[in-house]
Structures are given as structure tokens and as C-alpha cells.
Amino acid sequence: MSASAGQAAMSETPNHAMPRPLALVRWLYVVAAMVVLIVAVGGITRLTESGLSITQWNPITGVLPPIGEAAWQAEFELYRKTPEYLYEAGPAGMTLADFKFIFFWEWFHRLIGRLIGLAFALPLAWFWVKGAIPQGYKPRLLALLALGALQGTFGWLMVRSGLSGQMTDVSHFWLSIHLLTAFFTLGGLVWTARDLQALAQDPAERPVRLTGPSLIVALVLFVQLLLGAWVAGLNAGHAAYDWPLMNGEFFPQPDLSRGWIWALTHDPFLLHFLHRWWAWVAVAALIWLARRVRKEERKASIAIHSAFGVMVILGIATVLTGVSLWVAVAHQLTGALLVASVAWGMHADGRRKALRA
Fold first, then answer.
1. What is the 3-state secondary structure (H, E, C) of the chain?
2. pLDDT confidence of 1, banded at 50, 70, 90?
3. For position 357, what pLDDT does the model report?
4. Average pLDDT, stretch 311-332?
């Protein structure tokens, strides 16, 4: 496709409209940064056991926290009916002041989610009306908007899983779906921004396609992130505080009373072990990806190396510090940065293949 043909394609809009790919790039990076922030706040929410403090989903009225003593007491009364309070927080002697602390983190987490929705939907509508969206990108941007809405739905289903029955925590399956959807959305934002950035430099550029090696890396990383989400959801980080051994042994004794399938999805000792050591498979895959793109996109290669290096160190530190709140949050935050870096590297790998074709 020639440059003149590309320019003609971009100009297939009314005379008063002009595609503005760079403006969209800046907007998508801002939204991506907000997603990284909400992942970090989500980590704080999980580690402080704050996720079940708000027992209802009120998209409009829930924007404001309780105002006045009576409103706080009403919210606290709703929380007192949850299994988490009945079996854990209540017997531990939770006060209203303690409740306000955990309520803040869940409210703040939901507030950021609402802000991300507005930060994506409103500019999208403006760009759409102004004809600033390049040809072929509207379906992808709508898909990202739908992912954001789905993320909110998954978040509520996750919370609801811990509000009934005997569970004192949310389902670790729903937690992993909620977290991995955020990571997938983050990757989509970065990938789309990189496509638009290339289009701004050369109107003849076409969207990059995923390569086979990048797909392999993505699958390896997916397994590691899934294991990490299950470790978080089952509080399996507390299974051992030594490294590289676990409670003085290399391989823990898993609970096989209900079979291997159950153990691989529920046993905290086995999942902690797998998360520790699959990390090195992920490191090897990430080094492979970084080396593939270092000539064409050196900054992406450096970002991948830096992110997984810091993440491994923080993962070990999380264990050795007994799951210290801020160390564990930094570990999850770095996980989000790693996903963004890998999306960048995978995009560079696709562009590398296209240039060599």
C-alpha cells in the first residue's frame, strides 16, 4: 500500500473531519496509566481485606461515601451480615473506625473504576463526533469500551461471591477473572496506542498482527499471572515465609485428599510452589521476546527486562517479609507494568515480522 493510498484512506471522512492518531495515542496512554493505578489500588484492597466492605452496587449514589454518623452505621450494619464479619472481623473485634478504613479502599477502588469509564467513554464520543478516529479503529475502540464494562461486571460478581454462604473471602476464580481482564484491557490499550503511533508516523502503516512466538510468550505469562491471582485469592502467600525452600522443604506436601485437579486449583501450598517456579519459565520466555525485538525496539526490550527483574525481586521480598503490604502491592503494580511492557514488545515483534516480510 503506497503512502498516497494510505492518505486517501485516512481522508475518507467528511471535509471538516481529520483523523488525529497522535491525539488518540496520548488519550490511550493516559487510560492505560489509570488501569495500572487501579491494579495497584486493587492490590491494597485485597491485602487489607477491604473488598467486601461495600455490600451493594450503586453506580450513581455510590460515588459519594457515607455522610454522617447514621449513614456510616447503616453501612456498617450491612457489613455485619456478611460471612467475613461474622466469622473473622467480628470475632477479631472490628470497630467502626476499622470499618471506615477498609470501606475507604473499596470505595476508592470503585471510584477509580468509574473515572476510567468516563476517561474512556467521553473522549471516545468526542473523537467519534469530530471524525478524529482513523479508518478501521472504531470497532477496536468499542471493544475496549466493552471490556471496561465487562471488568466492572466481573468486579461485582467477584464481590457477590463473598457475600453469601460460609466464604469469608471472594472466590479466587472470580478474582483471577477480574484481574486478568484488567491486564488484557491494559495490553489492548498499549497495543492499540502503538498501532496508532505507527500510523501517525506513516499513513501507509497497517495494524500489526500477533506472531507465533509472541503468542507463546503470552500464554506462558498468562499462566504465571493466573497462578499469582489464585495465590492472592487464597492467601497462599502466607503458606511459607522462606525462600527458595518452603518451610524447610523444596516441594511441599500438597493436599491430595480430593485429587490432583482440586489440589492444582485450591491447595495454597501447591499453588505457592507453582507460582514460585513457573516464574522462571516466564523469565526465559520474556528474555526470548526481549532479545527478538532489541534491534528494532530497544526501549521495549529494556522495559521487559527491567519489569521482570524488579518483579522477581519483589516476589521474593514479599515472601521473606511475610507478605508485607507495600512490598506485595509493589509486586502487583510491577506485574501491571510488565504486562504493558510485554504488550509493547509483542507489538514490536509483529512489526518486525511485517517489515521483514
1. CCHHHHHHHHCCCCCCCCCCHHHHHHHHHHHHHHHHHHHHHHHHHHHCCCCCCCCCCCCCHHHCCCCCHHHHHHHHHHHCCCHHHHHHHCCCCCCHHHHHHHHHHHHHHHHHHHHHHHHHHHHHHHHHHHCCCCCCCHHHHHHHHHHHHHHHHHHHHHHHHCCCCCCCCCCHHHHHHHHHHHHHHHHHHHHHHHHHHHHHHCCCCCCCCCCHHHHHHHHHHHHHHHHHHHHHHCCHHHHCCCCCCECCECCCCCCCCCHHHHHHHHCHHHHHHHHHHHHHHHHHHHHHHHHHHCCCCHHHHHHHHHHHHHHHHHHHHHHHCCCCHHHHHHHHHHHHHHHHHHHHHHHHHHHHHHHHC
2. very low
3. 61
4. 96
CA distance 234 to 334: 20
* pLDDT (tens digit per residue) in 249-298: 999 888 899 999 999 999 999 999 999 999 999 999 999 999 999 998 99
**CA distances (Å), origin 82, targets 48, 98, 155, 240, 270:** 16, 16, 17, 29, 29
How far apart, in whole angstroms, are the C-alpha atoms of residue 280 and residue 272?
Answer: 14
CB neighbour list of residue 53: distance below 8 Å, 6 or more residues apart:
79, 99, 102, 103, 105, 106
Interhelix angle 325-356/268-293, rounded to 10 degrees, is: 40
The CA distance from 326 to 43, in Å, is: 9
Cell of 2: 503506497
Beta-carbon-side half-sphere exposure of residue 168 (alpha carbons within 13 Å):
10
C-alpha cell at 283: 523469565
